[in-house]
Amino acid sequence: STLTGGPGATSAGGAALRVAGASTAWLLDDTLVGGDGTPDGAGVEEALGGVAVALPGPASRLELDSPKRMGEPVTLTLDGPPGQQAWLFKWLAPGGVIKPGWSGVLLVDPAHLSLLALGNIPGSGELSLTANVPTIPGLQALPLYLQGVALAPGSIRLTSASHLLILAPGF
Questions:
Q1: Residue 136, SS3 per DSSP
Q2: Is 102 helix (H, G, I), strand (E, B) or coil?
Q3: Cβ–Cβ < 8 Å for 89, 40
Q4: Cβ contact 103:158 at 8 Å
Q5: What is the dihedral of CA 166, 167, 169, 171, to 10 degrees?
Q6: What is the pLDDT along the chain (171 residues), one digit of tens a residue?
Q7: Which long-range contacts link 95-98 to residues 24+ away (Cβ below 8 Å)?
Q8: CA distance linking residue 34 with residue 26, whole number of Å
Q9: What is the spatial distance between Cα 156 and Cα 171, in angstroms, rounded to a whole number?
């Protein structure tokens, strides 16, 4: 994404992002452009101990449609570096642990997550899989929190997260 600072009209342009105090801004695949002015504004302004940290590499995504009813097909699309192994973290609760070495934030509860192998990411950089949502007798609804991960020797890359709401057929 691109963030642009405000114009300064007859004064200095504004910063695209100001980080102040004990705050840390984690940036992934972002372009920060200072606003027009005399002089132009800075992309990032760190003040009073605030820090902006750029995570390495491009952002990766995980996409799927939700909600889905039991028995319906669901298509999951994950992108990442070609040739890497694709895995899916899943659990019943969200998380929020910053993992700079993994180029992202672990958005699935790390204490309880389970892991599902998806296969290797093809040369296009996009892996799409379709499966039918399982039928679970007696269950009306089940929220799942999902996040993809691309693995290679010495490399771990998290994708964006997604929430899948599974519903009973008549619900």
A1: coil
A2: helix
A3: no
A4: yes
A5: -170
A6: 787 888 876 688 888 888 998 898 888 888 888 888 888 888 888 899 999 988 877 888 999 999 999 999 999 999 988 999 999 999 888 888 888 888 888 988 888 888 999 999 999 999 999 999 999 899 899 999 999 999 888 888 999 999 999 999 877
A7: 95/145, 98/26
A8: 18
A9: 38
Q: Hey, what are 104's tokens?
A: 């992202």
What is the separation of C-alpha 122 from the centre of its chain, rounded to a whole number of angstroms?
A: 20
Q: Which amino acid is at 168?
A: A
pTM of the model: 0.79
User: Residues 164, 105, 108, CA angle at the centre, nearest 5°?
Assistant: 35
Phi, psi angles (nearest 5°) of residue 161: -105, 165
